[in-house]
Amino acid sequence: MLIVCPEIQIPEEELEFTYARSSGPGGQAVNKVNSKAILRWHPLQSVALSEGARARFLNAFGKRLSKEGALLIASDTFRDQRSNQESCREKLAELLLTIAKPPKVRRPTKPTRGSKERKLDGKKRVGANKALRRKVSHD
Question: Dihedral sign, CA of 4, 7, 13, 16?
Answer without folding.
Answer: negative
